[in-house]
Protein backbone atom coordinates (compact mmCIF):
# COMPACT_ATOMS: atom_id res chain seq x y z
CA UNK A 1 0.00 0.00 0.00
CA UNK A 2 1.46 3.31 -1.03
CA UNK A 3 1.09 6.50 1.00
CA UNK A 4 1.68 10.19 1.41
CA UNK A 5 4.98 10.59 3.26
CA UNK A 6 4.92 13.75 5.33
CA UNK A 7 8.04 15.19 6.93
CA UNK A 8 7.86 18.12 9.36
CA UNK A 9 10.89 19.78 10.87
CA UNK A 10 9.85 22.93 12.70
CA UNK A 11 10.69 22.48 16.40
CA UNK A 12 7.63 24.62 17.14
CA UNK A 13 4.29 22.88 17.57
CA UNK A 14 1.03 24.79 17.94
CA UNK A 15 2.53 28.09 16.72
CA UNK A 16 4.31 26.61 13.73
CA UNK A 17 3.23 28.24 10.49
CA UNK A 18 4.84 25.56 8.31
CA UNK A 19 3.07 22.76 10.22
CA UNK A 20 -0.28 24.57 10.10
CA UNK A 21 -0.01 25.05 6.34
CA UNK A 22 1.21 21.47 5.90
CA UNK A 23 -1.91 20.24 7.76
CA UNK A 24 -3.95 22.03 5.11
CA UNK A 25 -1.78 20.79 2.24
CA UNK A 26 -2.10 17.24 3.56
CA UNK A 27 -5.92 17.54 3.67
CA UNK A 28 -5.92 18.94 0.14
CA UNK A 29 -3.73 16.10 -1.16
CA UNK A 30 -5.87 13.46 0.53
CA UNK A 31 -8.94 15.01 -1.09
CA UNK A 32 -7.25 14.95 -4.49
CA UNK A 33 -5.93 11.41 -4.05
CA UNK A 34 -8.44 9.71 -1.72
CA UNK A 35 -6.72 6.32 -1.95
CA UNK A 36 -3.75 7.65 0.06
CA UNK A 37 -3.21 7.59 3.79
CA UNK A 38 -0.48 9.55 5.54
CA UNK A 39 2.73 8.38 7.13
CA UNK A 40 4.33 11.18 9.16
CA UNK A 41 7.84 11.69 10.45
CA UNK A 42 8.47 14.48 12.90
CA UNK A 43 12.12 15.18 12.23
CA UNK A 44 12.21 17.87 14.91
CA UNK A 45 11.71 15.31 17.68
CA UNK A 46 13.20 12.20 16.09
CA UNK A 47 16.77 13.51 16.15
CA UNK A 48 17.99 11.37 13.27
CA UNK A 49 21.72 10.84 13.69
CA UNK A 50 24.24 12.53 11.43
CA UNK A 51 26.01 10.16 9.09
CA UNK A 52 29.36 8.90 10.38
CA UNK A 53 32.61 7.50 9.00
CA UNK A 54 31.06 4.00 9.04
CA UNK A 55 27.85 5.17 7.36
CA UNK A 56 29.84 6.60 4.46
CA UNK A 57 32.03 3.50 4.24
CA UNK A 58 28.82 1.41 4.18
CA UNK A 59 27.30 3.57 1.43
CA UNK A 60 30.28 2.87 -0.85
CA UNK A 61 31.14 -0.70 0.17
CA UNK A 62 30.57 -3.40 -2.48
CA UNK A 63 28.12 -6.14 -1.35
CA UNK A 64 31.05 -8.46 -0.61
CA UNK A 65 32.62 -5.86 1.70
CA UNK A 66 29.51 -5.22 3.77
CA UNK A 67 30.61 -6.27 7.23
CA UNK A 68 28.08 -6.52 10.07
CA UNK A 69 29.45 -3.21 11.38
CA UNK A 70 28.83 -1.46 8.06
CA UNK A 71 25.39 -3.05 7.72
CA UNK A 72 24.47 -1.69 11.14
CA UNK A 73 25.81 1.74 10.20
CA UNK A 74 23.56 1.93 7.12
CA UNK A 75 20.46 0.26 8.61
CA UNK A 76 18.68 3.55 9.32
CA UNK A 77 19.50 4.84 5.82
CA UNK A 78 18.09 1.58 4.36
CA UNK A 79 14.87 2.06 6.33
CA UNK A 80 14.44 5.74 5.41
CA UNK A 81 15.16 5.06 1.73
CA UNK A 82 12.67 2.22 1.58
CA UNK A 83 10.06 4.42 3.25
CA UNK A 84 10.74 7.20 0.72
CA UNK A 85 10.74 4.95 -2.35
CA UNK A 86 7.44 3.34 -1.39
CA UNK A 87 5.70 6.72 -1.10
CA UNK A 88 3.33 7.98 -3.79
CA UNK A 89 3.74 11.63 -2.76
CA UNK A 90 6.25 13.41 -0.54
CA UNK A 91 5.11 16.39 1.55
CA UNK A 92 7.86 18.35 3.31
CA UNK A 93 7.18 21.30 5.59
CA UNK A 94 10.15 23.44 6.54
CA UNK A 95 10.93 26.85 8.00
CA UNK A 96 13.92 28.76 6.65
CA UNK A 97 16.72 28.54 9.20
CA UNK A 98 19.77 30.70 8.57
CA UNK A 99 18.87 30.90 4.88
CA UNK A 100 18.59 27.16 4.35
CA UNK A 101 16.99 23.99 5.71
CA UNK A 102 16.85 23.19 9.45
CA UNK A 103 19.57 20.71 10.40
CA UNK A 104 17.00 18.03 11.30
CA UNK A 105 15.86 17.96 7.68
CA UNK A 106 19.46 18.01 6.48
CA UNK A 107 20.16 14.95 8.66
CA UNK A 108 17.32 13.11 6.85
CA UNK A 109 18.66 14.27 3.47
CA UNK A 110 22.17 13.01 4.29
CA UNK A 111 20.70 9.61 5.19
CA UNK A 112 18.63 9.22 2.00
CA UNK A 113 20.86 10.64 -0.74
CA UNK A 114 22.84 7.50 -1.52
CA UNK A 115 24.71 6.16 -4.54
CA UNK A 116 22.95 3.30 -6.38
CA UNK A 117 19.96 3.54 -4.03
CA UNK A 118 18.47 6.96 -4.68
CA UNK A 119 20.79 8.17 -7.46
CA UNK A 120 23.18 6.59 -9.94
CA UNK A 121 26.30 8.00 -11.59
CA UNK A 122 27.68 6.45 -14.78
CA UNK A 123 30.89 8.46 -14.84
CA UNK A 124 29.40 11.41 -16.65
CA UNK A 125 25.75 11.76 -15.71
CA UNK A 126 23.57 11.48 -12.64
CA UNK A 127 20.24 9.71 -12.67
CA UNK A 128 17.60 9.91 -9.96
CA UNK A 129 16.25 6.55 -8.78
CA UNK A 130 13.30 7.72 -6.70
CA UNK A 131 10.03 7.16 -8.54
CA UNK A 132 7.86 9.14 -6.10
CA UNK A 133 5.24 10.81 -8.30
CA UNK A 134 5.39 14.29 -6.84
CA UNK A 135 6.64 16.37 -3.95
CA UNK A 136 4.96 19.27 -2.23
CA UNK A 137 7.15 21.72 -0.31
CA UNK A 138 5.53 23.97 2.30
CA UNK A 139 8.07 26.63 3.21
CA UNK A 140 7.88 29.44 5.75
CA UNK A 141 10.18 32.44 5.86
CA UNK A 142 10.42 34.90 8.76
CA UNK A 143 11.43 37.88 6.62
CA UNK A 144 10.08 39.15 3.34
CA UNK A 145 11.85 39.65 0.03
CA UNK A 146 13.04 36.13 -0.87
CA UNK A 147 10.79 35.71 -3.89
CA UNK A 148 12.31 36.20 -7.32
CA UNK A 149 13.39 39.81 -7.80
CA UNK A 150 13.15 40.54 -4.05
CA UNK A 151 15.96 42.15 -2.01
CA UNK A 152 16.77 38.84 -0.32
CA UNK A 153 16.25 36.55 -3.31
CA UNK A 154 19.96 35.73 -3.50
CA UNK A 155 19.81 34.51 0.11
CA UNK A 156 17.13 31.91 -0.54
CA UNK A 157 18.97 28.62 -0.18
CA UNK A 158 15.79 26.87 0.94
CA UNK A 159 13.42 26.58 -2.03
CA UNK A 160 16.09 26.34 -4.77
CA UNK A 161 17.99 23.73 -2.75
CA UNK A 162 14.96 21.54 -2.07
CA UNK A 163 13.71 21.89 -5.65
CA UNK A 164 17.13 20.87 -6.99
CA UNK A 165 17.28 17.96 -4.57
CA UNK A 166 13.84 16.66 -5.61
CA UNK A 167 14.88 16.80 -9.24
CA UNK A 168 18.24 15.14 -8.50
CA UNK A 169 16.44 12.25 -6.80
CA UNK A 170 14.23 11.77 -9.86
CA UNK A 171 11.02 13.33 -8.51
CA UNK A 172 9.86 15.09 -11.62
CA UNK A 173 7.01 17.22 -10.31
CA UNK A 174 7.45 19.58 -7.37
CA UNK A 175 4.78 21.97 -6.08
CA UNK A 176 5.79 24.78 -3.72
CA UNK A 177 3.61 26.63 -1.21
CA UNK A 178 5.50 29.45 0.45
CA UNK A 179 4.76 32.08 3.02
CA UNK A 180 7.00 35.02 3.88
CA UNK A 181 7.00 37.58 6.69
CA UNK A 182 5.92 35.20 9.44
CA UNK A 183 7.84 37.11 12.12
CA UNK A 184 6.48 40.51 11.15
CA UNK A 185 3.22 42.34 11.73
CA UNK A 186 0.44 39.94 12.85
CA UNK A 187 -2.10 41.45 10.41
CA UNK A 188 0.32 40.98 7.52
CA UNK A 189 0.91 37.41 8.68
CA UNK A 190 -2.84 36.69 8.66
CA UNK A 191 -3.07 38.09 5.12
CA UNK A 192 -0.10 36.00 4.00
CA UNK A 193 -1.63 32.89 5.61
CA UNK A 194 -4.92 33.48 3.82
CA UNK A 195 -3.04 33.71 0.51
CA UNK A 196 -1.12 30.51 1.25
CA UNK A 197 -4.41 28.74 2.03
CA UNK A 198 -5.78 29.91 -1.32
CA UNK A 199 -2.63 28.58 -3.00
CA UNK A 200 -3.16 25.23 -1.24
CA UNK A 201 -6.83 25.11 -2.25
CA UNK A 202 -5.70 25.60 -5.87
CA UNK A 203 -3.14 22.82 -5.72
CA UNK A 204 -3.78 20.37 -8.54
CA UNK A 205 -1.92 17.11 -9.02
CA UNK A 206 -1.81 15.13 -12.22
CA UNK A 207 -2.15 11.39 -11.95
CA UNK A 208 0.89 9.89 -13.68
C1 LIG B 1 16.97 29.44 14.41
C2 LIG B 1 16.13 30.25 13.45
C3 LIG B 1 16.71 30.70 12.28
C4 LIG B 1 15.95 31.46 11.38
N1 LIG B 1 16.53 31.90 10.24
C5 LIG B 1 15.80 32.65 9.38
C6 LIG B 1 16.38 33.13 8.18
O1 LIG B 1 17.53 32.90 7.85
N2 LIG B 1 15.61 33.89 7.36
C7 LIG B 1 14.29 34.17 7.65
O2 LIG B 1 13.62 34.83 6.85
N3 LIG B 1 13.72 33.70 8.77
C8 LIG B 1 14.44 32.95 9.63
N4 LIG B 1 13.87 32.47 10.77
C9 LIG B 1 12.42 32.67 10.97
C10 LIG B 1 11.63 31.44 10.53
O3 LIG B 1 11.97 31.05 9.22
C11 LIG B 1 10.15 31.73 10.57
O4 LIG B 1 9.79 32.17 11.86
C12 LIG B 1 9.34 30.52 10.16
O5 LIG B 1 7.99 30.90 9.93
C13 LIG B 1 9.35 29.47 11.26
O6 LIG B 1 8.54 28.38 10.84
P1 LIG B 1 7.52 27.73 11.86
O7 LIG B 1 6.51 28.80 12.20
O8 LIG B 1 6.93 26.59 11.13
O9 LIG B 1 8.31 27.31 13.07
C14 LIG B 1 14.60 31.73 11.67
C15 LIG B 1 14.02 31.26 12.87
C16 LIG B 1 14.79 30.54 13.76
C17 LIG B 1 14.16 30.04 15.03
TrEMBL record:
Cofactors (names): FMN
Cofactor binding, per record: Binds 1 FMN per subunit.
Domain of life where this protein originates: Bacteria
Record domain Flavodoxin-like fold: where: 4-202
InterPro entries: Flavodoxin_fold, Flavoprotein-like_sf, FMN-dep_NADH:Q_OxRdtase_AzoR1, NADH:quinone_OxRdtase_FMN_depd
Binding site for FMN: 10, 16-18, 96-99
Any Pfam family hit: Flavodoxin_2
SUPFAM superfamilies, A to Z: Flavoproteins
Keyword Signal part of the UniProt annotation: no
Enzyme class, first EC level, given as a word: oxidoreductase
The enzyme's E.C. designation: 1.6.5.-, 1.7.1.17
Catalytic activity: N,N-dimethyl-1,4-phenylenediamine + anthranilate + 2 NAD(+) = 2-(4-dimethylaminophenyl)diazenylbenzoate + 2 NADH + 2 H(+); 2 a quinone + NADH + H(+) = 2 a 1,4-benzosemiquinone + NAD(+)
Record keywords: Flavoprotein, FMN, NAD, Oxidoreductase
Assembly behavior: Homodimer.
Family, as annotated: Belongs to the azoreductase type 1 family.
Function: Quinone reductase that provides resistance to thiol-specific stress caused by electrophilic quinones.
Protein name per Swiss-Prot or TrEMBL: FMN dependent NADH:quinone oxidoreductase
Origin species: Litoribacillus peritrichatus
Amino acid sequence: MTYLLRLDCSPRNSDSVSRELADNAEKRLLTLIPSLSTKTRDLATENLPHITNDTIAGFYAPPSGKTEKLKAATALSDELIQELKMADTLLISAPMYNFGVPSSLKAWIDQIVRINKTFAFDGSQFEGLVAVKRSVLVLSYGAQGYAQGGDLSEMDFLEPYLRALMSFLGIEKTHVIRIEGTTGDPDALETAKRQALVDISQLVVEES
